[in-house]
Amino acid sequence: MYKPIKMTHLKIVSSLVFFGITLSIIAQDGTNDSKMELGALITDRPDATESPNTVPQGFLQIETGAYYTSFEDMIEGNTVKEEAIGYNTTLLRYGVLENLEVRLGWNFEEGQTTVNGTKLMNVSSGFTPLLAGMKVEISEEKGWMPTIGLLAHLFLPVSAGADYKPDTTGANILFSFSHTLSDSSGIGYNLGAKWGDDSPQVAYVYTIAFGQSLVGDLSFYAELYGDLPENDSSNHFWDAGFTYLLTDDIQLDATIGSGITEGQDLLLSGGISYRIQKKK
Length: 280
Prior knowledge:
By secondary structure, this protein is mainly β. It has helices at residues 10-29, 33-36, and strands at residues 59-75, 78-97, 100-115, 118-119, 124-127, 130-139, 147-156, 170-182, 185-196, 199-213, 218-229, 235-247, 250-259, 266-277. A twelve-stranded antiparallel β-barrel has the order 1-2-3-6-7-8-9-10-11-12-13-14.
């Protein structure tokens, strides 16, 4: 999932749900026999773990949402609280071939700093660097062998707002794996590396997520993820949440999380994903 940190509040979620229901009506109008055989969509949100599966050829998948994060620390005797709200975290995924998709993503964020209970005037706001990349589905699950995928992205500073614009282009590369544990559960995990934030050092990244189907179309997941920079302290996080399938082409999600190491006290997120077939 295209996820930095995430959250929502009631007004945002209500808007997303209304938007999703409207799109479901549009999508259902274009239903055909081939689409009915696809089964439920597989998303890269709400967790940090990217699936190895690509979007079906000729389909567009839109995964969007909102998030809130906070972190409080003592600096020189002052209580400093950093808060961030992402009003839009959108990832577009389009199936070019049977096992290849192209990806485009962006976030619109707003950051606020509070010192000893007083909010500072310098609010940061704007788009983060544009994500552009691809995913290749390498192999399907067979016996003890997992489904395997490869993802690669660039984070282009030319598209970012002044408050979030780095001097250099960032990049990441991930291998993605998934295993079926039973008819109602599975695990997924990623291993890879990333470069960015105007730092020349590589940070090695990992994720592991467990998913369990609950009742009907409601599912639960729990996840650990983090990164290990070459010359700095490692960062580790957890999150957990629920997904709900409105239809095979529309999914809602909600997440809560926090940091295991310092850097994040609270993460809240909500979103919607939907799949649309290209008009013929």
